[in-house]
């Protein structure tokens, strides 16, 4: 019994417990209203079901939130341009693959060229943001506001104001599934990005440096860590993630819809970082926390859909749940609860 | 009236993970009394203050204050203030971008119909500062004034809130003698007005100058309460350290008579930076401890920073170990074999949220390069070695460095630099805000390092400390290096004379 208590205490004491707890809570709430939520069926050799939908649809956000985590940790600011950068990446890819035409039924250029160009475009946007924040010392929100507003316009310029369609089966695979593999492809892409990032952080000192710079950039400079370079890198990395995410999103609709790809996703990405228990003030971070946060957001959306809430009203319910989740993780609330508890105990003793 | 108890803390206990921070501690403060709270690092002084002011909760015990019936539990510093307890902390806790007046009246601005009356506020602020003999423009932003002045503002603010109990937590560590004098005058005035003052400091001289009573803590437990007049200094130090008096002056400089003619480690020619430090020449040899002395703001830190590249110098040439080095950023200096312990521990030293282990290995890691990280095991071995070597008091190596006491944090930073095995170590105020025991340890370490052949630059506001450790001194005045004192010339009078400009005490 005692062991159990110790185990529970240890479990609840870990940093990721609360984010994970919230995710599980959101998922389990479906048992009441939508018992079929966890049912998984196979249609045309692909897995189907609400839970698969959560994992699949969250992928774009997971990839974004990985990049966002780096930016938040290193600079204590957020990159609000990621959604727009996604649309730029999608537009670049489609433009190259369509060879400038509006609708094509086969690739005009090699697929890999389009992918590389899209990722490169994402990184270029990241460089621009990074330059403004790290070198010009502009506040992150203001610096990234430039691409936030200009990004979609640039994407429109590239696609000449029209939606470019790539009606090629192999182009759809990235956003849907590869024949013979039952799990949707975006899941693998997200997994790959998370694993590669994790390895990058562990195999180089980037993770340690990002935290050091985020906590105390003056001290890090005196220790020979070039903080502006680290912050710059974090933005480039975030741009890269946005590029990859944009590719997936564009493949889902096999087109470059500059107005809708990644719309409002930057806010969800920031929220994912916060839900993961990371401080938006920078410093210590947990990559896994952000990933869990991203899945929680998608789980919430899908849950609400499953309950039959109309799409127009979903933001309201989402907001309510987010407030509860954030409150659950707040240390102030824990303090208040503790004080209330001790207050009651004292009261008992007196009585 | 003078014997009236204004504050009584009885049997206070508090534990932190793995440490008993306070163990049934009693503390009594009377009206119109200046009461020193003394103890080494981690003795529990700061914790006792924090418990009293509501920053930390305590587990058992009782606090009673005059004018408040029963057990008083403060949940926040604001609550403590409402009960008449004001605090001035070691590090200035004011808003640098607000004006002095705003800082003085923040949270209690004079208002009419909810609108701040700026004129009244500025006038009141001006009057308050003038009553303390500080003549400044109160409408300018706080950051325009030196740390010493900022500290005075913090005290003025606390005083103005008509406290029954005023807590001064190391207020003098960034003040020079003149300012300390002013502070003491102020303390004595408050004392005569009946305010009880708790004075936390590491400067023994100051304790004997102003305090009526001394309470000594050690390892979270009460050692005793004494009347200052009846407790000789030697006894006080012995009580704080919990051992027989180890004469602080007895650190041997075995190399005393040794001819200092080792190889040149540092050879600076005309290095300077416009507006902070005028061009200077400086030679430092192996095995030497060179002290930088001068008044607050004379350019001691600025000289060190220009040498290390913390502030990029705009003129001059530097040779390290005979090789010309161009220092544009700290990393260049590190690569050349330099290390720099900055004056401001909290803002430029520690990486608060990271573990002791991370903090220790960071500099060496930066030197080694980004793509060659240390393995976990290697890190742990290095960290353990230096925790042991410097006797850093920490629950374990994974504890966040911010939960260590100030002295132990300083040891972590020292360890960080020793790990890089530097040829030239710059220590800027390494013992500020640190207890006597650790101070002595650091001084001994400096002497030992020099015996091992390292060159050390030592900056301190305490002349005695400099005399004990340094083999040579450079004197600074008004942002300029004005001279050097050789080994034979080192004594208090000579230093005073040099600082004052020769015409000092004739």
UniProtKB/TrEMBL annotation, chain A:
Q: How does it sit in the membrane?
A: Multi-pass membrane protein
Subcellular localization, as worded in the UniProt entry: Cell membrane
CDD domains linked: TM_PBP1_transp_AraH_like (cd06579)
* GO MF: transmembrane transporter activity
One Gene Ontology cellular component annotation? plasma membrane
The question of whether Transferase is a record keyword is answered with no
Name-wise, this protein is Sugar ABC transporter permease
| Matching InterPro entries | ABC_transp_permease (IPR001851)
Q: Which domain of life is it from?
A: Bacteria
What residue intervals traverse the membrane? 47-73, 80-98, 110-134, 141-163, 183-201, 230-249, 287-308
Pfam families named in the record: BPD_transp_2
* Record keywords: Cell membrane, Membrane, Transmembrane, Transmembrane helix
Q: Which residues form a coiled coil?
A: none
Automatic annotation (TrEMBL), chain B:
Q: Which residues form the ABC transporter domain?
A: 7-244, 259-503
**Subcellular location, record wording:** Cell membrane
What SMART domains does the record tag this protein with? AAA (SM00382)
How does this protein sit in the membrane? Answer: Peripheral membrane protein
The source's domain of life comes to Bacteria
The protein's matches in PROSITE patterns, at most eight in alphabetical order, are given as: ABC_TRANSPORTER_1, ABC_TRANSPORTER_2
Picking any one GO molecular function of the record gives: ATP hydrolysis activity
Q: Which UniProt keywords apply?
A: ATP-binding, Cell membrane, Membrane, Nucleotide-binding, Repeat, Translocase, Transport
What is one term from the GO cellular component aspect held by the record?
Answer: plasma membrane
Which InterPro entries does the entry mention? Answer: AAA+_ATPase, ABC_carbohydrate_import_ATPase, ABC_transporter-like_ATP-bd, ABC_transporter-like_CS, P-loop_NTPase
CDD domains annotated for this entry?
ABC_Carb_Monos_I, ABC_Carb_Monos_II
The record's section on PANTHER family has: CARBOHYDRATE TRANSPORT ATP-BINDING PROTEIN MG119-RELATED, GALACTOFURANOSE TRANSPORTER ATP-BINDING PROTEIN YTFR
Protein name as annotated: Sugar ABC transporter ATP-binding protein
């Amino acid at each position: 019994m005692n062991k159990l208590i110790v185990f529970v205490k240890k479990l609840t004491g870990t940093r990721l417990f609360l984010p994970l707890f919230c995710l599980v809570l959101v998922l389990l709430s479906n048992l009441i209203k939508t018992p079929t939520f966890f049912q998984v069926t196979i249609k045309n050799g692909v897995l189907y079901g609400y839970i698969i939908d959560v994992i699949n649809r969250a992928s774009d956000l997971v990839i974004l939130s990985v990049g966002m985590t780096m930016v938040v940790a290193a600079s204590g600011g957020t990159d609000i341009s990621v959604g727009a950068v996604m649309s730029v990446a999608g537009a670049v890819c489609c433009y190259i693959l369509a060879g400038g035409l509006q609708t094509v039924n086969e690739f005009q250029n090699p697929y890999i060229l389009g992918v590389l160009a899209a990722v490169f475009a994402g990184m270029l946007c990241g460089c621009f943001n990074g330059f403004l924040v790290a070198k010009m010392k502009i506040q992150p929100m203001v610096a990234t506001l430039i691409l936030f507003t200009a990004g979609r316009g640039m994407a429109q310029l590239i696609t000449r104001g029209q939606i470019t369609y790539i009606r090629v089966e192999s182009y759809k695979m990235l956003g849907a599934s590869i024949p013979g593999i039952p799990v949707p492809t975006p899941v693998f892409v997200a997994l790959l990005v998370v694993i590669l990032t994790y390895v990058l952080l562990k195999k180089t000192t980037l993770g340690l440096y990002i935290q050091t710079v985020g906590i105390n950039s003056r001290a890090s400079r005196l220790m020979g860590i070039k903080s502006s370079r680290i912050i710059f890198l974090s933005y480039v990395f975030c741009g890269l993630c946005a590029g990859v995410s944009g590719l997936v999103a564009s493949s889902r609709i096999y087109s470059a819809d500059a107005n809708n790809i990644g719309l409002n996703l930057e806010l969800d990405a920031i929220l994912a970082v916060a839900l993961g228990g990371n401080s938006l003030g920078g410093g210590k971070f947990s990559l896994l926390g952000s990933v869990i946060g991203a899945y929680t957001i998608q789980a919430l959306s899908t849950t609400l859909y499953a309950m039959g809430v109309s799409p127009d009203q979903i933001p309201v319910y989402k907001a309510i749940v987010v407030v509860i989740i954030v409150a659950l993780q707040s240390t102030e609330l824990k303090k208040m609860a503790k004080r209330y508890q001790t207050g009651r105990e004292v009261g008992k003793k007196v009585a | 009236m003078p014997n009236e108890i204004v504050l009584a803390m009885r049997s206070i206990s508090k534990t932190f993970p793995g440490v008993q921070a306070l163990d049934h501690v009693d503390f009594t403060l009377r009206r119109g009394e200046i009461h020193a709270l003394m103890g080494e690092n981690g003795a529990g002084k700061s914790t006792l203050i924090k418990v009293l002011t509501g920053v930390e909760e305590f587990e058992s015990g009782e606090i009673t204050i005059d004018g408040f019936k029963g057990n008083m539990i403060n949940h926040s510093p604001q609550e403590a203030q409402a009960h008449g307890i004001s605090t001035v902390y070691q590090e200035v806790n004011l808003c640098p971008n607000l004006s002095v007046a705003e800082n003085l009246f923040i949270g209690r601005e004079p208002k009419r119909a909810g609108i701040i009356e700026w004129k009244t506020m500025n006038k009141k602020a001006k009057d308050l500062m003038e009553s303390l003999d500080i003549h400044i423009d109160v409408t300018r932003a706080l950051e325009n004034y030196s740390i010493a002045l900022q500290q005075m503002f913090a005290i003025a603010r606390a005083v103005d809130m008509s406290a029954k109990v005023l807590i001064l937590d190391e207020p003098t560590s960034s003040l020079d003698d003149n300012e300390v004098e002013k502070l003491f005058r102020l303390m004595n005035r408050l004392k005569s007005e009946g305010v009880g003052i708790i004075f936390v400091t590491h400067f023994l001289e100051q304790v004997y100058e102003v305090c009526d009573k001394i309470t000594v803590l050690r390892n979270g437990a009460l050692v005793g309460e004494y009347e200052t007049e009846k407790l000789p200094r030697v006894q006080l130090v012995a009580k704080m350290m919990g051992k027989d008096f180890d004469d602080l002056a007895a650190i041997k400089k075995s190399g005393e008579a040794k001819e200092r003619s080792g190889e040149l480690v540092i050879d600076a020619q005309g290095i300077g930076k416009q507006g902070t430090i005028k061009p200077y020449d400086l030679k430092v040899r192996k095995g030497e401890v060179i002290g930088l002395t001068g008044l607050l703001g004379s350019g001691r830190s600025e000289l060190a920073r220009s040498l290390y590249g913390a502030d990029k110098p705009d003129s001059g040439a530097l040779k390290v170990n005979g090789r010309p080095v161009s220092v544009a950023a700290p990393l260049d200096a590190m690569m050349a074999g330099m290390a720099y312990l900055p004056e401001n521990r909290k803002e430029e030293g520690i990486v608060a949220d990271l573990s002791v282990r991370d903090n220790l290995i960071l500099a060496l890691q930066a030197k080694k390069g980004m793509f060659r990280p240390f393995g976990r095991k290697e890190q742990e071995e290095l960290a353990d070695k230096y925790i042991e070597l410097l006797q850093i008091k920490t629950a374990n190596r994974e504890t966040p460095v911010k939960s260590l006491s100030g002295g132990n944090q300083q040891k972590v930073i020292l360890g960080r630099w020793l790990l890089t095995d530097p040829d030239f170590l710059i220590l800027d105020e390494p013992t500020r805000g640190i207890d006597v025991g650790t101070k002595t340890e650091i001084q001994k370490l400096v002497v030992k390092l020099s015996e091992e052949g390292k060159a050390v630059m030592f900056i301190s506001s305490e002349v005695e400390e400099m005399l004990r450790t340094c083999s040579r001194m450079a004197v600074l005045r008004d942002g300029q290096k004005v001279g050097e004192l050789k080994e034979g010339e080192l004594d208090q009078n000579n230093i005073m004379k040099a600082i004052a400009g020769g015409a000092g005490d004739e």
